[in-house]
Amino acid sequence: MARPKKSELPEGIRKRRVSAAPGYVYEINFFSPVHGQRFERVGTDIRHAKRLRETRLREVREGTYQPGLGSPGRITVREYAARWLNARIGEVITADDDRVRLDRHILPVLGGLRVAEVEAKHVVGLLEVLRTKAGHRGRPLAKNTIRNIYASVVTLFLDAEQEGLTLRNPCAGVRKSQRPRKARRSEVQGTAFTPEQVSRLISDERVPEDRRVLYALQFLTGTRFGEAAGLRWKDYDPARVPLGHMRVERQYEDLPLKGKRSEPGAPRDVPVHPTLAATLAEWKLGGFARMTGRAPVREDFIVPSREGRCRSLRHSARKLAEDCARVGIEWKEATHVARRTFITVALAGGASEAWLRRITHNASGDVLAGYQVNDWGAMCKVLGCVDIARRQPAAIAALPVRQLSYFARAVATSAS
Predict the structure, then answer these.
(1) DSSP string over 336-400
(2) Spatial CA neighbour of 81 closest among 52, 115, 105, 48
(3) How far apart are CA 58 and CA 318, in angstroms?
(4) Quick check: 404 pLDDT over 90?
(5) Distance of alpha carbon 107 from the chain centroid
């Protein structure tokens, strides 16, 4: 868009020279009976200057004009982000992720700018900072992390544009070659454990009992960490045949499952592997009480933290590395290692990809998925392809007689 000459500028708008490129900004002026003559600098877009002056004149007529930082034209990215986050809490499942991305990465670079002044060059500058920035462990940020941060920036300014705080989303001016791309599968492909390594993790007594149960939940269901950590006793039905049933319908502390485009994911049914059934039986009948000092109830997490809360990903990942060292497993940090191991072992054992996908992934929403009814028997056959067992069955002689049948049934199923 060509710059208008000084003589062509509309009434109430003029150019001001500044030292920063491109060497000028537009300034609007208007009169308020309460506050007198007012001046505001609004960047280098003449369309924005026109629209902002019209907004100010309307505010003066309606008596709603308030000078200062609270004025829409002068609100900073930091101020708007706080309001934007509050509106998203409870409405969007990525609100907590957006808060972390803003606090750690976006606001330190863009927070002091006014929303209306942010341009494509500022967003490009943010991306350049992110590509050279180190994460919490001293390594460069992953490509997918940068991509997720950029997605939060895009959404933030789309909403600001809808509210009339900026004329145009500055991300629209970022060239395709400058935008962060999704990492190739070969760049993020992590490792998978062998069945023997998993057996060590869930059997070796050098690993604390509560974490052995947590690892069995993760490696024998194919759930994401948050899904495994959010499982409660009420989600588990050990009486269903031919295998017990686990209902996965939330993650962490009752947050919705992950889905596409910030929408909650659909719940799914997971058959309980015989090895996991034996582990959960022993844990419910004794291990849970040894850790918490009481018997579990339906609303309890199956494997809570030592303080009784939901376990955190960062803490559990650190403990997994420690436990791998204890039992002699070479550990290379990888996201979803348990999930990847379950899928890898199942496919290697000849499991049906279609039924494996129904166990490990939420419904994709395709046409056939809407008409397909889960065949419990077919889903249980997938678990028969996962050849993972505990090294030594737990001793059950000390259990009370009334509890013996429940536990013995789980162990016998595991051994068959």
Answers:
(1) THHHHHHHHHHHHTT--HHHHHHHHS-----TGGGTPPP-HHHHHHHHTT-----SSPPP-TTS-
(2) 115
(3) 57
(4) no
(5) 19
Q: Which pair of tokens denotes residue 180?
A: 């962060």
Closest CA to 337 of 197, 233, 232: 197
Nearest CA to 268 out of 382, 139, 154, 189 is that of 382
CA gap 289, 303 in Å, rounded: 11
23-55 pLDDT, tens digit per residue, is 788 888 999 898 889 888 777 778 778 887 888
Which burial class, exposed, middle or buried, applies to 157 when counting CB atoms under 10 A from its CB (0-12, 13-18, 19+)? buried
Please give the Cα distance from 35 to 66 (Å, whole number). 9
Which secondary-structure segment (H or E) carries 196? helix 195-203
- Average pLDDT estimate for 270-296: 95
* Integer-rounded Cα radius of gyration of the chain: 29
User: What does each C-alpha distance from 109 to 126, 130, 145 come to in angstroms?
Assistant: 6, 10, 17
Distance separating alpha carbons of residues 385 and 352, to the nearest angstrom: 9
pTM of the full predicted structure?
A: 0.65
Structure tokens at 63: 């008596």
Sheet containing 268-272: give its strands across.
Answer: 236-237, 244-248, 268-272
251-268 per-residue burial string, b: 16 or more CB within 10 A, e: under 16: bbeeebbbeeebebbbeb
Spatial separation of the C-alpha atoms in residues 303 and 281, rounded to whole Å: 13
Give the pLDDT confidence score for residue 367 in this predicted structure.
43
Give the pair of three-digit tokens for residue 14.
């003029």
Closest CA relative to residue 306, chosen from 317, 315, 297, 318: 315
Helices (H), 33-116: 46-62, 77-88, 95-101, 107-110
- Please say whether the beta carbons of 174 and 52 come within 8 A: no
How many CB atoms are located within 10 Å of the residue 244 CB? 22
